Structures are given as structure tokens and as C-alpha cells.
Amino acid sequence: MYIIDEKDLEYRHGDSGPKYLMKGPRMNFAIVQFPPGSDFKSHYHNVMEENFYVMEGEIDIIVDGKTFTLTKGQFIHVEPEETHYLINHSDKVARLVATLAPYQESDKVEVDS
């Protein structure tokens, strides 16, 4: 058992990207922040499923070419091998919870969008 306070961690890119509260041994758990105009490169995972829950703001998630606009309180599940791309087209910050499981040290495959 352990407790982590989000305020003690940094986003990967300063004010954006993931902030991992847990990486393994069975899953990853992160808070992800998207300032207006920011995105995650299109990618998929061979083994891990990925889930996103919108805590604030609005985010466009493109899964296998189909666009979904999610807002606060909405959740999306992405299966392994489904290509997904996230972008914040709004004028406000979007914050999401992201989980990936089962944990794999390296399972992200980037693709051209």
C-alpha cells in the first residue's frame, strides 16, 4: 500500500502530458493535461488497453479514424491495437485520468496520423 499526492509530481512536458501516479506492476495510472492546441501523437498498444476519463475541459479522441468529442464526466475505453490520437481543439485546459493495463514496460507504437 502507498499514497501519492498529485501535487508532488510533474507533468512530462512542464504544463502538459502525463503525470504518472503509478507505473506498474499491473497497470499505469496517470493524470494527463492538455492545454489548448496540444495533442498526443497517434499510436496504439499491442497488449495494453487504455482508458480515459475527462475530469475537466473537452478533448477530441480519434480512434481508428472516427472522432469522439468528450467532455467532463465522460469515459472512453480503447482496446489494444486500436489506433488513437488525442487533441485539445478547445480554448480551455483539458485534464484526464488515463489508465493502461496490463502493464507492459514498452508497448506504445507510434504511427503517422
Automatic annotation (TrEMBL):
InterPro entries, per the entry: Cupin_2, Flavonoid_dioxygenase-like, RmlC-like_jellyroll, RmlC_Cupin_sf
All copies of domain Cupin type-2, residue ranges: 31-98
Pfam families, per the entry: Cupin_2
Protein name: Cupin domain-containing protein
